[in-house]
Design goal:
Elements lengths: L2 E7 L2 H6 L10 E8 L18 E7 L10 H19 L5 E4 L3 E4 L2 E13 L2 E11 L16 H5 L5 H16 L5 H11 L6 E6 L2 E10 L5 E5 L4 E4 L4 E3 L7
Parallel strand pairs: 1-2
Antiparallel strand pairs: 2-3, 3-7, 4-5, 5-6, 6-7, 8-9, 8-12, 9-10, 10-11
Helix pairs in contact: 2-4, 2-5
The chain binds biotin.
């Protein structure tokens, strides 16, 4: 695996976007000690204290994956992070995937994933997979809604390189199972945050209670409302109402 380390970059995802991606070998990793303009979902910033956390991007060429199945890669990445995190912090913690691409421990976010897909005609050519994991940071700005970190959970500090290497091994292992759809879907459901729990949401501006039933092939979340109506939600249509703050 080719790991390219930089003390500081604006954003590892942005850096990868400037590479000649077609020629960039699968599993090239761009890792930054700090990011000055880390990018999060929906145009948000990804805040991460310099030198304390894992912020990296991985270049993959999932050319065997049909374009319509792109969300399966997000499932693979999310499961790989969960597998790895459970090993690092122990199985006693509730490590969950909060749809569409956050990793939670309990009701707190520990990792965010940002995948940018490059489609060439009908072929899924390249994915730039950005992953940010809170590792050693214990103090967060109040602008970050509900963060936690590995150090906050375990009361220890970690060397980042071995952690990154073990996380990449976990991704490589899950990536080999990409064609095992049923297996992936079962594992994904068993890790899904709030699965089958009646919980509050804001769907297209309307507050409601609903229970998550699953995620379809296209990555849309399926929920059943208290009134027994089945909703299929795209990312921007749904907001989780959280116990202590709205996210
Ligand atoms: C989110 O939860 O909003 C997604 C966060 C993704 C953050 C990672 S850190 C490494 C990579 N580079 C970026 O600029 N963003 C991703």
């Amino acid at each position: 695996m080719d790991i390219r380390f930089f003390d500081a970059l604006a954003s590892t995802n942005q850096y990868c976007e400037l590479l000649d991606l077609k020629q960039t070998e699968e599993f090239t990793v761009v890792w930054a000690g700090s990011q000055t303009a880390g990018v999060g979902q929906q145009g948000n910033r990804w805040e991460s204290a310099a030198g304390e956390n894992l912020t990296f991007s991985l270049v993959l060429h999932p050319r065997q994956l049909a374009v319509a199945d792109q969300y399966r890669l997000t499932k693979v990445l999310s499961l790989a992070v969960c597998d790895w995190l459970s090993e690092v912090i122990g199985d006693a913690y509730n490590v969950r995937i909060k749809w569409p691409n956050d990793i939670y421990v309990g009701d707190k976010k520990i990792c965010g994933i940002l995948v940018s897909n490059h489609i060439a005609g009908n072929v899924f050519d390249t994915a730039v997979c950005g992953i940010g994991v809170n590792v050693n940071q214990t103090v967060f700005s109040s602008a970050v809604p509900n963060p936690t970190s590995i150090a906050l959970l375990t009361q220890r500090q970690y060397d980042l390189r071995p952690l990154l290497e073990s996380l990449l091994r976990s991704v490589a292992l899950r990536y080999t199972t990409m064609a095992m759809v049923e297996h992936l879907d079962n594992d994904y459901l068993s890790r899904l945050y709030r699965l089958h729990e009646m919980q509050p949401y804001d769907f297209q501006g309307t507050l409601m209670r609903a229970a998550i039933e699953g995620v379809n092939r296209f990555g849309h979340l399926q929920l059943r409302t208290e009134q027994d109506e089945l909703l299929t939600c795209a990312m921007k249509e749904l907001r989780y109402i959280m116990p202590h703050n709205d996210v």
